Amino acid sequence: MELKNIMEGAAVQTINIAVDGEKKSEIMHSENAGIETRSASKIPVSADLTPKEQYQQLWANLKIERRFVLWSLYVMALVFGWGYDAGLSGVAIAFPEFREAYGNYYAEGGQFVIPALWQSLWNAASTIGQVFGAFLVGQFADYTGRRPILYLAIILSLAASFALVFAPNLPVLFVSKLLLGFSVGFSTATPPLYVTENAPAKLRSTLSSLTNVIIVLGFFLSSLTGFGASKISGQWSYRLAFVMTFLVPGLFLIGLPFLPESPVWYMKKGREQDARKAIVRLFGANHDVEERVSIIKKELEMESGNAHNGSQTSWKAIFSKEHRTRTLVAVLGLQSQNFSGGYFANTYQTYYFELIGQKDPFGLTAISSTLQFLSNCVSVCISDVLPRRKALVGGGTLLCFWSIIIAGTSMASKTNTAANTALLAFMVTWSMLYTGTVGCFGWAVAQETASQSTRPKTISFTVVCQQLTALLLSSIFPYFINPDQLNWGGKIMFLFVGAEIFILAGLYFFQPETKNRTYGDIDVLYAAKVSPRKFRQYIVDDGVVMKKLA
């Protein structure tokens, strides 16, 4: 390959890629060489599309790939369990009958209270299960395939749901929630992996953003169930909320036998003919199977030299020099959700509404979750139009300001009607902003930043890290918010602001702009040592990195 300088006096040298007729699509890598960066002034480059043109293109792609879109909606539906389970944790504790059945009488407050230890275990049980479930997905997804893990998730979910409804005491309740957590871990890591590894680049963000839409839908339905069940007297008030955990897994099981295995997994295993059949079932008979196979091959070969080696990716690989920055970005994408304050504003929303004296906390939560769901739907519609960096870093910054206001108004007396009204308004609008920015785009960034070969373990590791921090929060949160403990209430948002600043700083420096980029293009830009903050300034043309015109 011919060596030359890009600019006079430049310190960085790059190597031009030799492209011959037979290997035009192949990208060569060298240990001490990057990829040539050429000015777009020398090669014509099409201008960026306007938002209107991008919407037209998105709609056209949705119609062309409608079969895959429908399969993606079906697969992502299983993520419902995370949202419902997260909402269920807070909703159940808000039921007086639940606290009376499993708690102790708190004379000073004149009410039953679940002991802080058991409340921590109740919140942590599902999280612990999700940690191990997500880890097992990363460990075995490339060996067993995606479908066996989905079957295991369904079986565990149905068994745990039955035990949860009829749990006679706190220990059994804890074990039931733990098993449900295992199921949620499987069903949270596997569907995003299945969808993002097979999604066309032009639809990848829209489809990966479905993760948070389904999670919010689960939270939304848990609040509606809680609102309806709160009108019922006796233990079946909260048990009805538990019964709803049967719904989605039961319906999902009906369609699972017809779901094809992931074509990418087949290609990793060297089973090209099976991959071709799966592509037809996923995308339809009119889809260009040869082109899809070629794309998958190229993505896998760019990382591992051949598709077979791509099936043997180790945990060590995601921390290698080539991938550790991408792993960091994926982890920070989801950590921005935890440390923005989502755990307080979402999971504990119903309970906190009750603590500050609201007469209908379930109704308020139902309104809040409805607005969250609508906000998330809007964000999905613009996810392939709005740049990732602006949505995640900019949205997280806006949430910090909202959190400061929530914390400040929480310092007022409970008898201060104006302050309480402002607190409610900012908590509800905070939740809307969260789901529309950090909640939606955090998942998109976490799923699409990794390379094709390391994606199973990267997604699993990212979910494990998120759940470990959630476990930390669920363990200490009752001690901060319970009336018989520190009783901080909304003031805890001050702590979240401090933590979120560090997360946003990391994303600002390391998060690349991956909007509408193929996985191959992302790999080339990383190989060329382009600064992640400047990805948007470059395009990739046949394996050559070129800077856009100013």
What does this structure look like?
With 550 residues, this protein is mainly alpha-helical. The chain is built from 23 helices and 7 strands. A 3-stranded mixed sheet has the order 3-7-6, covered by helices on one side. Strand 6 (538-541) and strand 7 (544-547) form a beta hairpin. Helix 3 packs antiparallel against helix 5 (116-144) and helix 7 runs antiparallel to helix 21 (455-481). The two termini are 29 Å apart. Residues 1-47 and 305-311 have low confidence and may be disordered.
Structural class: mainly alpha
Q: Tell me the major beta sheet.
A: 3 strands, mixed
Uncertain regions: pLDDT < 50 for 5+ in a row?
A: 1-47, 305-311
Measured on Cα atoms, how large is the radius of gyration? 24 Å
Coarse shape: globular
Beta-strand residue percentage: under 5%
Order of helices and strands: EEEHHHHEEHHHHHHHHHHHHHHHHHHHEE
Overall pLDDT metric:
80
Give the N-terminus to C-terminus distance in angstroms.
29 Å
Helix share of residues?
55-70%
What topology, given as strand order, has the largest sheet?
3-7-6
How many E strands?
A: 7
Number of helices: 23
